[in-house]
Description:
Elements: H1 8-18, E1 23-27, E2 31-32, H2 72-75, H3 78-86, E3 89-92, E4 99-104, H4 107-116, E5 121-124, E6 129-134, E7 140-144, E8 147-150, E9 156-157, E10 167-168, H5 171-180, H6 208-222, H7 227-242, H8 250-262, H9 267-281
Parallel strand pairs: 6-10
Antiparallel strand pairs: 1-2, 1-3, 3-9, 4-6, 4-8, 5-6, 7-8
Helix pairs in contact: 6-7, 6-8, 7-9
Amino acid sequence: MTPQTLSALHRVALDRAGHGLPVLPLRAGKLPLGNCDDCRENRCGGRPNMKTPGPCACPHPCHGWAAATIDPAVLTSSQWSRAWQQAEALAYHPGGAGVTVVDLDTPAAADWARATLPPTVTVATTRGEHWIYRGVMQSANGVRPGVDIKSSMSYARWIGPGTGTLADLPDTVRALAVKVSTPARAAQPVGVSAPVGGGECRHRTPTYLERGIAMAEQRITDARTGVHATVYRTFLAVLSAHGRCGCLTASHIGRLFAAAQAKGESVRHCTDAWTNARTRLGL
């Protein structure tokens, strides 16, 4: 593809990547492009280490935030060029760029930030503001009403450079993510059993199952709307990939239930979703 045929979004992506920002295309709904057939439901095992910044090993823009890259050879490859032609927005991996985005989705959340947080680079969004700080931390949604934190293992939409001077990540923001995980919000015990299974195990590496569970947790955590449906579809995907070989344990299920409960789901709904997924798959 010649420079003359690049889409406007593709040009912006290359420019941002040239400034060290790992970028990826988004489809309608501000969602990452789905995995290719080889990587669907993480059958490929994911890239070498899904817990650290860096591009996915797949030549397609797969695996959500892990696809973000600054490599111009990848960004201009035939697979990615086709994706840019279909993309509706541009995103980046804040953690890979060494920053944290405090995503303020409501005017009230923005007012809270102005009264509480130190000034930094601010970007206006359609519903609120992004406050960007220098430093990386764990990502967390719903740390306050209308406030999400996007940093490691997450992506944020690129809207523009914003205004202001980049400040260091304050302890106030770090404390918000810790608060989400306090014992008072701990998930209730799991009341379902793992499938026993006897089928052939498809886990080509010892970490295949771990990556699948981690991605499932992240999928639930990232859900903004339709949480009920997201939880069910995620349970269905996990059971489809791992439910017949007997590798799932109560600990794995507990992690999935905890992620769902952190989004406001009840134990009863989690149990029903898990049971319905097993029934649909005949497990």
